[in-house]
Amino acid sequence: MKIAMIGAGSIVFSKNLTGDILGYPEFKDATLCYMDIDRDRLEVGADLCRKVADALGANPTIQSTLDRREALRDADFVINMVQIGGFDSTLVDFEIPRKYGLNFTIADTTGPGGLFRALRTFPMLSGLCRDMMELCPRATLLNYSNPMSMNMQTIYRTSDIHAVGLCHSVQGTLDQITSYIGVKPSEVAFICAGINHMAFYLKLEKEGRDLYPRLFEAMNDPKTYEKNKVRFELMKRLGYFITESSEHNAEYNPYFIPHGEKHYGRYDVPIDEYLYRCDTIVNEFDRLKSFSKTAEKIEVQRSHEYGSTILHAMVTGTPAVVYGNMPNRGAIANLPATAIAEVPTLVDRAGLQLTTIGELPPQLLAYVMPHVQQHELFIRAALEGRRDHVYQAAMFDPLTAATLTLDQIVQMCDELIAAHGFESQGGFLPNLDAKKTLVPTSGRTYSPPTAASLRQSWDDAHKAKTR
C-alpha cells in the first residue's frame, strides 16, 4: 500500500498521522511518500516520521520528494494537508480587513479569511485532483486542509476523485462535553450533523437517557461556563451544542465581535488568536528541526484523527463510523444536495457513505445556511472567474455584514484580490476577471502590500492591545 502525504512540511500533523497509520500491524510495511515544496520542512518531517517508525517497530518504505506527481504515482491513498501562501498570506487575510474595522479570531473557515484561503487553494487543489485522475484514479483523497467545506467543493466540482474531508472537532468536542457532565465518551450515544465547524449534537444519550439537561445544568456552574463561553451562549439560545471552539464560533455569527471590545471581552473572544498561534509554530519548528537530527527517541501516541481508521476499514473491510465531509445528497434533508455536509459516515471495503440524518431543526439550519451559500458563491467565483461572486460571498457573511457597509465590502475584496494576486501573474488566485458582469467593482487600484508592511501592521495591532 502506498500513501502519499501532500504538504508533509506540516510536520506535527504528518508525524501524528504517520504514528496512527503505522500503529496498525497491517500497515507496518506500507510505503509512505512525503511531499512538500519546502525542502527544509520536508526533510525535517521525513526524519521525524522515521523516528516514529522506529518507536513503533515498523519497517515502512519512507520516501520524500519535491515532485507532486512522483508522490501521487500509483498511490492508494492521498492525504492533503497543504496551506497555500503560508504566514504571509495569513497576514494579508487579517491585516487588510483590519483596515476596514473587521477583526477575526482564526479566519480559516468562512468569511473573508476562509474565502480567500479557499480561493488561493483552488488552483493547487484542482491541479492535485487532475494529477490524481491521471496517476492514481482509484485512490481515495483524505483532505485535512481548511477551509474544509470550500476545499471539498473544489475537489468534487472539478474532478471525479473519491474524497472525504476530515476534522477532529466532532470527537474533540465530545470529549469536552462529557468532561463537563462527568461521563466517559465511550458511554455516550450521539449524533452530530451540520457543516464543518458548525455541526450540532442532535442526540446526546447515556443508556437511553437524554444528557442535555445535565449539560444545561453544568453550564450554570461558573467554572464550567468560563471554559467555553461562546458555545454555551449559543447552546443557551439554539438548544444544541456546536462543534469547534469558542474562538472559532465567535466569528461565524454577528453576536459577539461586531458589538465592540467591551462586549466580546465578556466572552473571552481572542481577537487575532491564529496570528499568535502562527508565531508559536515558528519556534516549535526550530525545536523539532534540532530534535529530528538527534538519536533521542520520540514518544508516539494515537491521535484523534480519523485518517488511519478510514485506511484500516477500507483495506481490511473492518467497518467503522467516522464523521466525514462530503456532498450532502440527501444526508441532511433540508440542506442543498451540493452542500458539503458533516454527518456520521460509514466506511468499509466499499468506501465511504454518508448516513441519513433527516432535517436539521430550523434554528440550526438558519445558523449554517449563510455559510453554505458562501461556499456555493466561492466555487462559482473560482470556476466561472467571477469577481462579483467574491463580493457576494463576503456580503452574506454574518460577521462581515454586521461590521461593514456594502461599499467597504467591495473595496476590501478588491484590495484582498490585489494583495494575493492571480496565479497567472505570479500570485495565488484563479482568474476572477474571466467573466464580466454588470456588478461594479470599487473602481480603485490597489498595490500589493509588502511582507514587511504587513508584519508592521500586525506588530502595531499587537502593541495596541497590550498597552
Total strand segments: 12
Structural class: alpha/beta
Mean pLDDT across every amino acid position:
97
Strand content: 5-15%
Q: If you compute it from the alpha carbons, what radius of gyration comes out, rounded to the nearest whole angstrom?
A: 22 Å
Q: Give the CA-CA distance, first to last residue.
A: 55 Å
* Helix amount: 40-55%
Topology, please?
Blueprint (H helix, E strand, L loop, with lengths): L1 E5 L4 H12 L8 E5 L3 H18 L4 E5 L2 H5 L4 E4 L5 H14 L11 H25 L4 E4 L4 H11 L3 E5 L2 H13 L7 E7 L2 E9 L2 E2 L1 H8 L2 H4 L3 H10 L7 H4 L11 H5 L7 H20 L14 H10 L3 E8 L12 E9 L2 E4 L7 H23 L2 H9 L2 H4 L4 H15 L30 H16 L1
Parallel strand pairs: 1-2, 1-4, 2-3, 4-5, 5-6
Antiparallel strand pairs: 6-10, 7-8, 8-9, 10-11, 11-12
Short description:
By secondary structure, the protein is an alpha/beta fold.
Describe this structure in words.
With 467 residues, this protein is of the alpha/beta class. It has a domain at 384-466. Helix content is 48%, strand content 14%. The protein has helices at residues 11-22, 39-56, 68-72, 86-99, 111-135, 148-158, 169-181, 212-219, 222-225, 229-238, 246-249, 261-265, 273-292, 307-316, 362-384, 387-395, 398-401, 406-420, 451-466, and strands at 2-6, 31-35, 61-65, 77-80, 140-143, 162-166, 189-195, 198-206, 209-210, 320-327, 340-348, 351-354. Strands 3-2-1-4-5-6-10-11-12 form a 9-stranded mixed β-sheet. A 3-stranded antiparallel β-sheet has the order 7-8-9. The protein starts with a strand and ends with a helix. The relative contact order is 0.14.
